[in-house]
């Protein structure tokens, strides 16, 4: 995690509107829109947009927030041979952008993005709504509702255990990653049984252990009672991740 993201969420002098703007800027830097977008505060009264099909996610941590993105022109990739079932869901396409936005809030957990009606969120007076302006006009909208500002946090700033104590009972996804690669969508759609995908990691390299998508440890793959498992070889310093 970068120093910028952490300082944004832990500086008690920063108000929710400033936190929301930092999140909006981080989000637009990752959105797969092709053209560069600029977040501008939406100030023209009642929100008008396709909020019934917004991509939403909730972040819980030192700062808690509800996030929603509306991008009407994001393509829906559909496999017509499988009764129009989605190949790449819009929430999966926008998940990395929402994760980038939530990183500005500091330590915490972002749940999986989902598509639902976000009309109430956009209409809430405590929600900050940004227009996502591009070369051809407004490409979409981003809504952020801060439910607990950093100024309300108890305990000294930088206390990692204090920040995560309130979410100690939240279930999180633990993932072991042996490698990754980037592929154009056309190559993904062309995959068939027997295809080999080359990863960016050599044989024998340690696997990454991720907690809700955040790297926390390294390990090696082992077999326990005919099931795959991971033996932890190194725990990354969580306190350093907050610096």
Characterise this structure.
- This protein has seven helices and 13 strands.
- With 243 residues, the protein is α+β, with helices and mostly antiparallel strands.
- It has two domains: 3-165, CheC-like (Chemotaxis protein chec, 3-Layer(aba) Sandwich), CATH 3.40.1550; 174-241, Surface presentation of antigens (SPOA) (Roll), CATH 2.30.330.
- β2 (54-61) and β3 (64-70) form a beta hairpin.
- The model is unreliable at 1-13, 76-82, 149-160 and 239-243 (pLDDT under 50).
Short synopsis of the structure:
The chain is an alpha+beta fold and 243 residues long. 23% of the residues lie in helices and 33% in strands.
Descriptive tags:
243 residues, alpha+beta, Chemotaxis protein chec, Surface presentation of antigens (SPOA), 2 domains, 4-stranded antiparallel sheet, 7 helices, disordered N terminus
Topology, please?
Blueprint: H1 3-10, H2 16-28, E1 38-41, E2 54-61, E3 64-70, E4 77-79, E5 85-88, H3 90-103, E6 108-110, E7 114-116, H4 119-123, E8 128-134, E9 137-148, H5 160-165, E10 174-177, H6 185-189, E11 207-211, E12 214-224, E13 227-235, H7 238-241
Antiparallel strand pairs: 1-8, 2-3, 2-6, 2-7, 3-9, 4-5, 8-9, 10-11, 11-12, 12-13
Helix pairs in contact: 2-3
- Rg over alpha carbons: 20 Å
Q: Distance N terminus to C terminus?
A: 8 Å
Structural class, by secondary structure, is: alpha+beta
* Overall CATH architecture of the largest domain: 3-Layer(aba) Sandwich
Number of domains: 2
Tally of helical segments:
7
> Could you tell me the number of beta strands?
13
Write out the CATH superfamily name of the largest domain: CheC-like
Instruction: Profile the largest sheet.
Output: 7 strands, antiparallel
Beta fraction: 25-35%
| H and E string | HHEEEEEHEEHEEHEHEEEH
Helix proportion of residues, in percent?
10-25%
Q: Report the CATH C-level class of the largest domain.
A: Alpha Beta
Detail the poorly predicted runs. 1-13, 76-82, 149-160, 239-243
Mean pLDDT equals 77
CATH fold node name of the largest domain: Chemotaxis protein chec
Q: Could you say which overall geometry the principal axes of the C-alpha atoms support?
A: globular
């Amino acid at each position: 995690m970068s120093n910028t993201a952490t300082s944004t969420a832990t500086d008690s002098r920063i108000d929710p509107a400033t936190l929301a703007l930092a999140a909006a800027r981080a989000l637009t830097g990752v959105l797969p829109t092709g053209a560069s977008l600029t977040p501008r505060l939406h100030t023209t009264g009642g929100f008008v947009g396709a909020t019934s099909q917004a991509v939403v996610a909730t972040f819980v941590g030192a700062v808690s927030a509800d996030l929603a993105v509306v991008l009407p022109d994001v393509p829906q990739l559909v496999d017509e041979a499988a009764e129009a079932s989605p190949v790449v869901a819009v929430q999966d396409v926008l998940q990395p952008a929402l994760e980038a936005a939530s990183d500005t809030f500091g330590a915490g957990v972002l749940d999986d993005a989902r598509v639902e009606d976000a009309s109430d969120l956009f209409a809430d007076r405590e929600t900050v709504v940004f227009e996502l302006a591009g070369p051809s006009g407004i490409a979409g909208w981003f809504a952020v509702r801060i439910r607990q500002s950093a100024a309300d946090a108890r305990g000294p700033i930088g206390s990692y255990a204090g920040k995560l104590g309130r979410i100690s009972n939240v279930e999180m996804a633990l993932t072991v990653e042996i490698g990754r690669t980037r592929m154009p969508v056309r190559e993904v759609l062309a995959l068939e049984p027997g295809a080999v995908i080359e990863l960016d990691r050599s044989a024998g390299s340690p696997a990454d252990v991720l907690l809700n998508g955040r790297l926390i440890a390294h390990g090696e793959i082992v077999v326990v009672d005919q099931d795959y498992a991971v033996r932890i070889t190194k725990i990354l310093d969580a306190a350093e991740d907050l610096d």
